[in-house]
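Newbie here. two chains, one complex. Structure please?
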Amino acid sequence: MSLVNGVLVGGVYALVALGWVLIYKCSGVLNLAMGELTLIGAYVTLAFYQAGIPFVLSIVCTLIIGIILGILVERIFLDKLIGEPILAVIMVTVGLSFFFKGMIEFVWGTNTRVYTPPIFPLEPITLGFIKISNVYLWSFILAILLFVIFAAFFKYSHWGLAMQATADDETAALSLGVSARFVYAGAWAIAFMSAGVGGALLGNINGINISVGYLGLLVLPAVVLGGLNSIPGAILGGITIGVLQNLSGAYLDRYFPGGVKEVFPFAFMAVFLLFKPYGFWGWERIERM
Amino acid sequence: MSHVWLPCGLYHQEYSKDHGWWQTPLIRGKMIFLLGIIFIVFPLTLTGYWFGVANMVGYTALGALGVQILIGYAGLITLGHAAFLAVGAYTSTLLILQFPWPNFFINWGLAYPISIIIAGIIAGLWSVLFGLPSAKVKGFYLILTTMAAQFITVDFILTQYISQIGGRGQAFSLPPGTIKIGPWIIDSEIKTYFLMAILLTLCIVIVANLLRSKVGRAWIAIRDNDIAAETLGINIIWYKLLNFFVAGFIAGLAGAFWVSNTAALSPEHFPWFWSLWLVGVILIGGVGSIHGVIFGSIFMVLVMELIQLGVISLSDVFPELMIKFLYIKESVFGLIICAFLIFQPRGLSYRWWQIKNYFNLWPFSY
């Protein structure tokens, strides 16, 4: 039972983890503002939904706003950082995350909001002898769907290949005629879009408040487990973490009462990195002098 | 960048002078002047509110010094330094509250100083524990393990277990008079200020000296190219762990100092925000520079105080601003970091370096 639940929760994690992996794969940046992007997605969808637009249409609207915001962010902040050391870029995303978080709190406040009327029926679906919550099932399906789309995008499309090339070696990609500005704008637009969808779904589980953003951090172990630049790794990592979390909640809670569920993935990740430094399928960089 | 030109017309005649601590009489004079300002002028002129600000600057600088050692001098990016501050603060508090001190220790006021040292050592060891993955991973993966340190330490161990010790509830409060160094009870802001000034001066002198020794050179070699450093015979794992220990030690001191500055200690004093804040401080001050730590902390604390003053003065007109002050603060902090990284990527200390060189080379600045 907790195994199946874990797999399904893992589907949600995988969805958010996809956002991390995508932006890392596209631009080589660890985007620490991911949690806030998720929040923005959730709140914007909510705003549209409460204006009376159907849920699917409001997700489409969120996607469009995500693209616009992504390109804006890239143009204003990250455009000037092409060629700067990677720490600078990471810290800019940290700065952005504070900026977004402050702005979100400023505009929407810190109270929990819920989708009214609820979008997914509350009663669980029964598959054989297992009961599954509707939201989790949909997120799982969506994660798999997005996985297929993005895997195809990176493997077969011109843009996807250009993005991977930029992430691998910016200078070499530039010299081959890849427009780094275009790639980064695309990467951020994609990140905003995937985070938007993830946020919209997450908001349906427990309502939206600032703590949805922390989930963006909670999936970090999932990302690392799979390897930072592997899309199937994100799915596998997400599911592994979901299962681990549920199992640790079920079995370890009685020995370590308290929030063992939230922390166990992090502890597991720290130990895991000692043995497998690049995750399951991350690129192993062979360094030369 | 560390190289500062000597004033015009001044030349060293012995190699040993090149490695001198204070290379010219002018520098020695400036340093003594600075110490005079910190230890004599400020205590005489500052008032209550500004002592609070100065203590905040000192606390930030102590924390950021550890981050600077990790990020600026060994290239080990950390986003979980608040965890080690918390370990220091809790070690010190628990030692004072729970340890069965012999009477004369308390009477002579030795308990707090000893607890500061032990806090440093424990925080250092805790930091080494989370630095262990640095033997195998670097870059992003290391960032993630330091984040793990933050969440495991503060959100889990401290909140769920350590805070329950003694059944005091979530916040530990130290009874007045327990924080005592020798005959002095640290109970007013001016005494905290002196404690801060002494600790900060000591730490900076020690770190600055460490950085120009074999250890410091090894760290810088690892930062610049760890593979090259290894081929030169530097035991990189040992030096990385040593780096984690020193950074954690200073964080422990800072945390133990914070105990004297706060009425009650709770895990909320050490959020993830604070780890990021410390990294922000060194980015604004300048990575790889001890000046940067000081400039960054002064700048950030003052900017935040100014925003606070601004919001308070505006609150008559817009009362809802007071409620949303925290959010504004967060947003502004984010924007400042972004702006600095975009427009001034080498930080404030780079400007300071340019100014110093300008005057040193004047009038022959070519």
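Moderator note: Residues 180-206 of chain A form the longest helix (27 residues). The first strand of chain A starts at residue 125 and ends at 127. Thread marked as resolved.
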